[in-house]
Amino acid sequence: MVVTAVERSEQPAAATTPGETIAPWQAMLVLVALTLAVFHHVGSHGFVFDDLINIQSNDQLNWAGLGRFWREPYASMYIPVTYSFWVAEAEAARTLRPTASNLQLDPGLFHFANLALHVAVAVLVFVWLRTLRLNSLAAVAGALLFAVHPLQTETVNWVTETKGTLAALFGCGALLVFGQSLAAKPAKRWPLFGAATLLLALALLSKPSAAAIPLIALAVEWGFQQRPLRRLALPLAIWAALVVLVAWWAASEQEASALRNLAAPAWRPLVAADAVSFYLQKLVSPFAYCLDYGRTPAWLVKQPAIYFTWVLPVALAAVLAALPRQRTWLTALAVFVAGLAPTLGLIPFAFQEISTVADRYAYLAMLGPALAVAAILTYYDRRPVLFGVFGLLLVFGFIANRASEHWQNQATVFNRALAVNPRSVMGNLAIGNLLVSVGKFDEGLAHFRRGLESDPQHPGLIGNLGIALEGAGQYEEASEVLHKALKLRPDNHLAHIGLGRIYQRAGDQAHAIESFERAIELNDSVPEAHVFLAQALADSGATGPAIEQFERALQMHPQWMPAAAELMWLWSTSNDAKLRNGPAAVKLGESIRAGLETKSAAPQDRPDALFFDALAASYAETNQYMLAVQVGSKLVEELQLLAAKDAAWNDYLAGVSERLNLYHHGQPVRNVPPGHRLKIPGR
User: Fold this and answer.
1) CA-wise closest residue to 602 among 361, 426, 363, 412
2) Burial (0-12, 13-18, 19+ Cβ within 10 Å), 646
3) Buried b / exposed e across 159-178, counting CB within 10 Å, b at 16+?
4) Whole-angstrom Cα distance, residue 334 to residue 268?
5) Four-point Cα dihedral 298, 304, 306, 308, nearest 10
6) What is the pTM of this model?
């Protein structure tokens, strides 16, 4: 093995210091155990945010759909390796832990798989640090910092960020093999480099930000290992060409879209410097983490601080340059910045519409601090230093463990975002939608309007504001807002949904159907659009197409009770015997009922009269009249209490009572007028 200058001058020769009292296998065991202890509860978390599009509502996650992810992007991302991994997970989930409906994928399996990848990456970081001739205890400390620092919480707890852990796994593998190729004899050098290049390609096809790997390799091999640039020039030039090729291919496959909230090119260096400063502060002040910091370039250039935040990274570099062994510390800083480089905003990217900075963008960059900590414990291998570092790691692990609690579900994630950043566009949009979904229109409208204060042109906020106004009965203002949204962006699918609802309320089913179909054409992954279209079709007497749309919605949101109830009703009561499917209705109803007993049931999925009315009809359709009577009788009792307080329930109570009488006489529900859907007051 080639011994570099830094190894000869800076590595301690003794093997009796505290850092060498632990064997590598013992160090890795400690690393794995502590990482699992910090993040062990991720398996109880649900799908959040983009998980709903990438996984839960993605009907292509099967072996038959695998080729589609390699041919073209999905959800505006060309990451075929990650989608291939998700396909394998989905198929395993259906086999190992199928849900009652056999439609909903278990988020726990996806979370545990992402955690396993994170642990594997941490082990590779340990091995990588050992190849740099840092002792075992020092290497495990550096790997632990990488594994349990609170900055990593977002990546570990968010299933969509499996793309980040996969990219890091292949990327760290590429760094390891690349280093071996440089130290190998000429006969083995190029085969090893070929293997490293393959790993880099897999990393890039897992997540594009793996483009940082060649920069990290340059910083480590030239800065820390002190290899001459002439030996690095050709292999790194090949890697750079590969990065450009993959980036070009991905860009050519994806639809171009105009990004908003960007700053003029002249501001980009200051935006990038501000981002580096932000991450440096998060390294030493591990508090107030959230999904949306709201630091868009457009917002940032209006802040006086942008003229000064660059001072922190520059001053840190100056201090490190003045320290003994400055090359090591400057290399660690360079690795940190290199890991961040693809997402600093020097080249605009989509999430900058929300924020330039996000915790997940620091995942690979944490290799820099890991290197610094390992070097400190190697060069200053004394017990007080050792205890201090591991004490700090325990604090970081505790904070990361607590921070993981904010990732339990959609509500906890975005309530946390609003607690840290009240002007969060994502937080106000998500919480507004959750409130509207349970009928709290005034509170939901307040969140949408608060979000629009931060981003007045945000299409999602404008579209959802219009939909909420429609739901609140403020049709005139809703129409005005929705037409404004379409004027700003004709492809705003939410605005088309809102206008469709207004047409639907007015009884204009033809225009409603047209609006919903246009919305689905623009974005097929919104279950509400399919439900509204199904309702409009059912009200027009098109029961068959309505059933298809309800089924599509339930593929995306399997525990959505209102949609399930309407589908069960159509399956159980249709006058067309070819469309009736009582067994499927009963199976769906019982799966929804079983899901209510789990803690994963969302507030909008709680039982209501519509569901139990449809369940009773489903039992009657399958000749299970005793169960139909049992469910129907209990429903009548509850409706009588409601009707005593609100006369609006009387008509619906009368209808349920008539159906209960049919069940008592062993008759299913029939002769339903075309276009008659199951409806309750307020729906």
Assistant:
1) 412
2) exposed
3) bbbbbbbbbbbbbbbbbbbb
4) 19
5) 180
6) 0.80
Question: At a CB cut-off of 8 Å and minimum separation 6, what does 104 contact?
Answer: 56, 558, 559, 595
Least confident of 38-52, 331-345, 645-659, 664-678: 664-678
- HSE at residue 601, side-chain half, CA atoms within 13 A, is 15
The per-residue pLDDT for range 240-266, each reduced to its tens digit, is: 999 998 888 766 555 545 566 677 889
Answer whether 445's CB lies under 8 Å from 432's CB. yes
Residue whose entry in the numeric block shows the structure tokens 């298809």 = 548
Model confidence at 1, in pLDDT bands (50, 70, 90)?
very low
Assess contact for 148 and 400: CB atoms under 8 A: yes
Residues 6+ apart with CB under 8 A from 572: 580, 582, 585, 614, 617, 618, 620, 621, 668, 669
Amino acid in position 472: A
What confidence tens digit (pLDDT) does each residue in 195-219 have? 999 999 999 999 999 999 999 999 9
Asked if 509 and 483 touch (Cβ cutoff 8 Å), the reply is: no
- Write the burial class of residue 540 (CB in 10 Å: 0-12 exposed, 13-18 middle, 19+ buried): middle
In this structure, the dihedral spanned by the alpha carbons of residues 615, 617, 619 and 624, taken in order and rounded to 10 degrees, is 150
Residue 77 has φ and ψ, to the nearest 5°, of -130, 130
Kindly state the average pLDDT of the residues 10-33: 69
Tokens at 118, concatenated? 């994170």
pLDDT value of position 99: 52
Q: What tokens appear for 202 in the block? A: 């897999």
Quick one: tokens of 54? 């990438």
Query: What is the Cα–Cα distance from 555 to 453, expressed in whole angstroms?
Result: 35
**Cα 585 from chain centre:** 32
Q: Which long-range contacts (CB under 8 A, 24 or more apart) does 597-605 make?
A: 600/46, 600/107, 600/409, 600/559, 601/559, 602/409, 602/410, 602/559, 603/434, 603/437, 603/438, 604/434, 604/437, 604/438, 604/560, 604/561, 605/559, 605/560, 605/561
pLDDT above 90: residue 31: yes
Contact call for residues 187 and 395 (beta carbons, < 8 A): no
Report the amino acid identity of residue 585: A
Euclidean distance between CA atoms 560 and 600, whole angstroms: 12
* Six-digit token string for 550: 């309800």
The predicted-structure confidence for 216-234, as pLDDT tens digits, reads as follows: 999 999 999 999 999 999 9
603 band by pLDDT with thresholds 50, 70 and 90: very low
Residue found by looking up tokens 């504001």 in the block: 465
